[in-house]
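Ops channel
N.P.: pipeline sanity check, posting one input/output pair.
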């Protein structure tokens, strides 16, 4: 249902999938790095971005467009554990620090 709704919001666009990202979430996920990205262990000067982060950046650059993010199976997990930086930023308006 969420997928159909998201695609309907972009039905007049050439690529309706651009406004939708479905991310599978595991019940035991407790580290936000698999969603928000992480420092490359082989090159500590480089940050590995994820599809989730790229999608958030794309959505934030076009605030007038409807973007839909579906965290699949989120009901089986603890979202506050791995979305803490994002939720905090939404509440305070502060920037999200991904990599010092």
């Amino acid at each position: 249902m969420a997928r159909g709704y998201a695609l309907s919001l972009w039905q007049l666009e050439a690529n309706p999938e651009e406004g939708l990202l479905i991310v599978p979430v595991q019940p035991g996920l407790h580290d936000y790095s698999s969603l928000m990205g992480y420092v490359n262990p082989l090159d500590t000067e480089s940050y590995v971005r994820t599809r989730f982060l790229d999608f958030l950046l794309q959505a934030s650059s076009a605030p007038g467009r409807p973007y839909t993010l579906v965290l699949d199976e989120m009901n089986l997990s603890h979202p506050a554990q791995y979305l803490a930086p994002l939720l905090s930023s939404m509440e305070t308006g502060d920037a999200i620090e991904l990599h010092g």
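N.P.: looks fine end to end. The chain has a mean pLDDT of 84.
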